[in-house]
Amino acid sequence: MKLYYHPVSTTSRPVWLFIAENGIDCELRVVDLLKGEHYQPEYVAINPNRLVPVLEDGDFRLTESSAILKYLAEKTGSSAYPKELRARAKVNEMMDWINTQVCREFAYGLVYPQIFPNHKRRSDEAHAGTIAWGKEKARGWLKVLDESLLGTKKKYLCGEQITIADYFGGPFVALGEILRCNYSAYPNVSRWLGRMKALKSWGKVHEVFHGFAASLKDKAFESV
User: Fold this and answer.
1) Could you give all domains of the chain from N- to C-terminal order, each with its CATH number?
2) Nearest Cα to 113, choosing from 38, 21, 223?
3) What does the pLDDT look like over 112-135, one tens digit per residue?
4) Are 192 and 123 in contact (CB under 8 A)?
């Protein structure tokens, strides 16, 4: 198997983390987004979306990180994707929730417009409005995650055992660190994120991301 990815890509890190933590035999192939490699014909032929990650398993390809995690967990027989119908449905539900609420309004609404020039809106007014909307929505979803989805008793998003929903959600929530977000108002989120950061491969997987965050240390951000 081969994973096309970039270490700063928020959608790449969940897959890489799962591969690293579970010792999955998979070749890692960096697609240099900063140099526009994802727009080159060779890569567009692999993924016409011009995005990462992509998993290749022989002549089979997958292009969405959520689907890739499910495939890898199923292929390796991982307990992180339970086979019991209702337990699996809850994992799927949580991953869909992250992929819509957190990804859409926290990542694309609040973080990316502030750190990536290609996400800047056409006018200062539109840009400020996007960030204000993203900030308001992000606070709301973090409150739901903290009080309702995690609560005081759950160790992980779906209960006592880690699942691919945690691998998926951890890097998305940790993305806020680039804006220097303060999660103290969300103690259950902080507790869960700390547990994810304790994984043996977390530091390696996030090393380049942390370097990128450090390069923005003098920039002022709107954050939660």
Assistant:
1) 2-76 (3.40.30.10), 85-215 (1.20.1050.10)
2) 223
3) 999 999 999 999 999 999 999 999
4) no
